[in-house]
Amino acid sequence: MPTWTLDRLNAMPAPDFGAALGSVFEHASWVAEQAAAARPFATVTALHEAMREAVAHAGTERQLALIRGHPELGSRVRRAEFTTHSQAEQGALGLDRLSEAEFARFQQLNAAYRDKFSLPFVICVRRHTRQSILREMERRLGNDAAAEPATALAEIALIARLRLVGLVDGPGKPKTDGRLSTHVLDIVRGRPAAGVRVSLFEIGESARASLREAVTDADGRAELIAGEPLRIGSYELAFAIGDHFARLAQAAPGARHFRDLPFLDIVPLRVSIAEPEAHYHVPLLATPWSYTTYRGS
Amino acid sequence: MPTWTLDRLNAMPAPDFGAALGSVFEHASWVAEQAAAARPFATVTALHEAMREAVAHAGTERQLALIRGHPELGSRVRRAEFTTHSQAEQGALGLDRLSEAEFARFQQLNAAYRDKFSLPFVICVRRHTRQSILREMERRLGNDAAAEPATALAEIALIARLRLVGLVDGPGKPKTDGRLSTHVLDIVRGRPAAGVRVSLFEIGESARASLREAVTDADGRAELIAGEPLRIGSYELAFAIGDHFARLAQAAPGARHFRDLPFLDIVPLRVSIAEPEAHYHVPLLATPWSYTTYRGS
Amino acid sequence: MPTWTLDRLNAMPAPDFGAALGSVFEHASWVAEQAAAARPFATVTALHEAMREAVAHAGTERQLALIRGHPELGSRVRRAEFTTHSQAEQGALGLDRLSEAEFARFQQLNAAYRDKFSLPFVICVRRHTRQSILREMERRLGNDAAAEPATALAEIALIARLRLVGLVDGPGKPKTDGRLSTHVLDIVRGRPAAGVRVSLFEIGESARASLREAVTDADGRAELIAGEPLRIGSYELAFAIGDHFARLAQAAPGARHFRDLPFLDIVPLRVSIAEPEAHYHVPLLATPWSYTTYRGS
Amino acid sequence: MPTWTLDRLNAMPAPDFGAALGSVFEHASWVAEQAAAARPFATVTALHEAMREAVAHAGTERQLALIRGHPELGSRVRRAEFTTHSQAEQGALGLDRLSEAEFARFQQLNAAYRDKFSLPFVICVRRHTRQSILREMERRLGNDAAAEPATALAEIALIARLRLVGLVDGPGKPKTDGRLSTHVLDIVRGRPAAGVRVSLFEIGESARASLREAVTDADGRAELIAGEPLRIGSYELAFAIGDHFARLAQAAPGARHFRDLPFLDIVPLRVSIAEPEAHYHVPLLATPWSYTTYRGS
User: Fold this and answer.
1) Cβ separation A296–C219 shorter than 8 A
2) Which of A188, C42, C102, D12 is the most exposed, fewest CB within 10 Å of its CB?
């Protein structure tokens, strides 16, 4: 539950406002203090925008200090404690601890980043899997030293947006949630396939981690992720289609023993998520011998 | 290359015929000797049929002796040496050595089978994966003691059929080969998808083993297994669809950098094979955002 | 807008109630009068049920008189005036006037029905197309004389249900509306296809009639029929898919002249509706070279 | 059956060669006579190429005379006699006689063409439907007067190629045949759908003409057009899918009366053909509630 309403934040004395939102930008309560002057805000998005503006006009010195105020990612990744502000931000990082090889690669990239840019590597962890963090480290290592601070500040704004949405209730909240959903149709019967078990896995280079189990409802639908940003990365949805058709075959009058090795049993769909705030709807149209999947809406 | 032609076998003295085909039924050259009297054979299938007839009319004693003439499967499965006749019959068993747990289960099932039926467990290994052998052991353990010898003899006939087809050339050879093939269509362009890498894996309970790599030809087709029985079991075909569309996007005039995390990258299809001598054709119709697969023909 | 609320009907004197609902069963105000005694009704469905009960216990004489109170369908079908109660019930019968041949067949079936059953042919016209009315005439002509009155009374109950829902507002209204909708996905882009023109036709034996034009909204969706029963019969949905892809090709940077004869231009889907109160959702997943359609949900 | 072999044509005296192939280019035996000097030809394609070269180097005067040697298309289109050389070339023009409106448009376009270019409109009729001829007339009317003779000569080369392939047997024949085929898969059963009736129609602006009926073979396949060029234009393939599933439902043990109004009965696919010498393979993957079609290979 958010602690504040936008109305209260608009009405309170400036120092209280600064105190209320001081932790939104890590170790930089001056951002909230400056934004206080732009009150009242009609929307939470406008408030976030004003805080970004304060950063944008703060000058290079303060911007670099803001970046440097962020904890080093590398030293703690192994224990899934990427930042100090909120353990919760890291809690759901899907993959289990990094393998030795990945950890070594991580350490090396982190060191190379600090060497090149003299900055800690900052990223909005809640929008990423370990896999995509490694990928981003590699990609950003290729950036110009002059351009990289802007990238880091954009990530900091994303972190702040998530914190703000968690702290403040009010109209015009920016979209920070993504959604991953599915819909299973039994096209032998022209009906939703209810009661189908769907398992969601995160796919890393060296491992896969089970994230969630769901079962399709009476309309054949299941929500797999909602109410939080999706994490950029690769996933597998595994549908127990064989069980569905075996169940129906047994229910049919005069059904004989259903073959114990059906052509399709577990149907795996492997998809990647690139936009954390988007809705990924991935339906499955199935028969015992075929299926179709697509990015729906 | 087969050693004999049907014509030569039809023409040679009966003892030579018996010697030529004596090893077709394990340690039971009497089967070939009896079949000699039914010559000439118009087809290889008729020859196989005559040998099966000889077994069918041999009486229970000789039938049980025939089954008992087969080596114990269990003691050697770990080293992938299921029978003595032909190492080649075992060579392609897809999964790597059994895990400790599977081996223990195997030993236990094998012992239980011998206890219940006083027979070695006989199965036509070339039509099976380790996974399906374990499954068959479990299933056959549930059989009646009175009925099980018929099942074992049917497996011995399948073993003999494969050996016969390897030994004898001539008209009317029984079908012993299966086929697993695919066809990739790029339905964005309405054309076959050429040059798509396809990897074939065998899926066991505790492991997956890479069987083969193929690349689709100019018509989008690839043969994955041909010229041998398919092994009953579960498989995964993995298509490098992301690479295909990235390649085409780069070739397009004015192409910008292709997104490094496409919605679909590797498309896995998991299918089971239940009929070793059948043709399993598994096409893939793909866009960067959707695909359809089905058992084709 | 309904004339009455259920509350008012529950509260008014019995004779007023009888007058208010007297026309719900054609020329049979006694049905409403008897149902008055069962008040109060918690739901509109319960009210309808009570009226059906009154008919069910009225005895054969009165039931036959109720059926005979309905106008002859045959004499006026040509001018699309199937019943006297409400012209509106007939207004939307999709096909233009019957062809000479169909009219002759209609007249003949109607006469044969009256000869066999000594009853006018009664059917809930708003749930039917001309095609399905002809089909029902043929089918019911094959019924037992003893069983047919029950079929006619079931149709009369369907007619009454529609009239009741039109007259009375209140909780628990029975479902009388069907829905025909579509959803067009552009699976080349992994996005809804917005702005696609969809034409709906009713398909008769000798003609097809244009019912409606729609354009898909920003989410690729279009409602084709809603807020009324669907009419049992055959339909064609025609999607201007060629225009959609041509539009996008022209919008693309560096687009060349789009081929004037695309493989797919108008995509026709021909489906039949058998359940007037159901939701038929018929999506289309399209590329310029392929499409998939299915009964969705 | 071709009249000549390439070998004989290579060996015969030049005047005989000229006589043998004199009619390949309409009223222009000089083309064959000049090509004689380039003998021997290794392939029929090389022979055709040499004749095209003779035309290409003949100079504007002779080229225009060659075009003018072709009969007027317009005066006879109504009776489907587009050229004098070969009635057979016109015989299969799918649509019935043009409507009055189409004929009027045709006459007007033809007159406008002659006015603008002082040439008869020449087109390789066997590669076209009436619809695409009208479209081509309109398109070519927009051409530059300077450029249009090249278009007419390209059409004459296509006419000649077809005549040559009909007259001469030998290696390296140019491809002049197209192919339209289908393949119906019953994805409820994972098997080809055998015995499905497929009707082929040509779709014109004002009419549709039935071209052919076929029935899928045991492998679910049917050839619709082969051994001739496809005609550029729009087609409908209509599959009797409802009958197929009704048949199977009746064959199933314990089948009840199959619903007389199935969701899918006749499935129409409307496709356009733009390349007369190409293979258009249009499969259908069907259940009683869904289908997928695509341009296959």
Assistant:
1) no
2) C42
The distance of C126 to chain D (nearest Cα, Å) reads: 18
Query: C4 with C171: CB under 8 angstroms?
Result: no
Q: Please judge whether B234 and A265 are an interchain contact, meaning their C-beta atoms are less than 8 angstroms apart.
A: yes
Measured in whole angstroms, how far is the alpha carbon of residue C288 from the centre of its chain? 34
For chain B, the maximum distance between any two Cα atoms, rounded to a whole number of angstroms, is: 79
Could you give the percent of chain A with pLDDT greater than 90? 78
Q: Residue C187: which of B189, B190, B290 has the nearest Cβ?
A: B290
Mean pLDDT of chain D: 89
Which candidate in B185, B282, B297 is best for mutational testing of the D interface (most D CBs within 10 A)?
B297
> A194 to chain C: nearest residue by CA?
C297
Paired tokens of C23: 């026309």
Minimum mean pLDDT range among A220-229, D100-109, D217-226: D100-109
User: What are the chain C neighbours of B267 within 8 Å (beta carbons)?
Assistant: none
Residue B95 pLDDT > 80: no
Closest-CA distance, D264 to chain C, in angstroms, reads 5
| Confidence check: pLDDT of B106 > 90 | no
Following DSSP, what letter does each residue of A158-187 receive, concatenated?
HHHHHHHHHHEE-SSPPP--EEEEEEEEET
Residues of D in contact with B193 (CB under 8 A): none
C-alpha dist (Å) from residue D167 to D55, D155, D163, D276 = 20, 19, 6, 20
Mean pLDDT of the region A163-184: 97
- Nearest chain D CA: its distance from B57 CA (Å): 36
Distance of alpha carbon D127 from alpha carbon D177, whole angstroms:
10
Tell me how far apart the terminal alpha carbons of chain A are, to the nearest angstrom: 29
Instruction: Please say if the pLDDT value at position C70 is more than 50.
Output: yes
Q: What is the mean pLDDT of chain B?
A: 89
Helices D100-117 and D130-141: angle between axes, nearest 10 degrees: 30
Instruction: Spell out the residues 6+ positions from residue C34 whose beta carbon is closer than 8 angstroms to its own.
Output: C54
Using the beta-carbon criterion (under 8 Å), do B188 and C287 form an inter-chain contact? yes
Write the pLDDT tens digit of every residue in D60-70. Answer: 999 999 999 99
What residue ranges in C241-295 does DSSP mark as E strands?
266-273, 279-281, 284-287, 290-294
Residues 6 or more apart from D41 whose CB is under 8 A from it? D6, D9, D10, D47, D50
Beta bridge partners of B285: B185, B292
Secondary structure of residue C54 in the 3-state scheme = helix
The answer to whether B272 contacts A263, with C-beta atoms less than 8 Å apart, is yes
| Buried/exposed code over D51-88 (b: 16+ C-beta within 10 A; e: otherwise) | bbebbeebeeeebbebbeebbebbeebeebbbbebbee
**CA distances (Å), C63 to each of A239, C26, C58, in order?**
54, 12, 7
Render pLDDT for C235-248 as a digit per residue (tens, 0 to 9): 999 999 999 999 99
Looking up tokens 């269990």 gives B74
